[in-house]
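Re: the request from the purification team.
They wanted to know what the chain is likely to look like in 3D before they choose a buffer screen. I agreed to run a prediction and write the result into the notebook, where they can find it.
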Amino acid sequence: MKKSIKRELIEWVFTFIICIIATLIIKSNVFAMPMVIESSMENTFVEGERVFENKLSYVFNEPKREDIVIIDKYEGSKGILHNTYTDARATLNSILGTCEKRYIIKRVVGIPGDTIDIKEGYVYLNGEKLDESYIKAEGETYAGNVTLPLKVPENKVFVLGDNRNVSIDSRDLGLIDYTQVKSKVLYRIWPLDKMGDVYKK
């Protein structure tokens, strides 16, 4: 009887560990439903909302203008093992209360070949003033630390937050490498009354 209980306990522990590993792999490499914990994308996303991110979106495709993406502002590397380890470490740090925010949500404004400029508080794409109906306040885009105008090179994107006054983005971080783009945000899933495709006009 004792051996049977011990064997059953080992099986439960083993099953639990396998489930945790499988969950981490899926969360790190396939999809996740993170909570927005910053105000840099207002009014598109408000702090406390939850979104659905597809981590397979850029396996065979490249980011496009106006894509809402989640990026790793510290590292540019991809792969199942790397993604799983990085996500597990970030999750553990969050539980321990030592989390340094590494994943941020932003909007792609410039892709390879684009020329970005910021003049009098407005963004210009390839010489044309952008119509940015999604931003929180018009005419309040400061240039930041980048030298403008700037041409986006291959395998890079220029990202901005929709709430330009508080957003840390390419104006501070510089151009974002494709390997730093971890996923594409597709849907808002919380609150229920705002659930839906975030790209619908």
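For the purification team: The chain has a mean pLDDT of 86.
Please add any questions underneath this entry.
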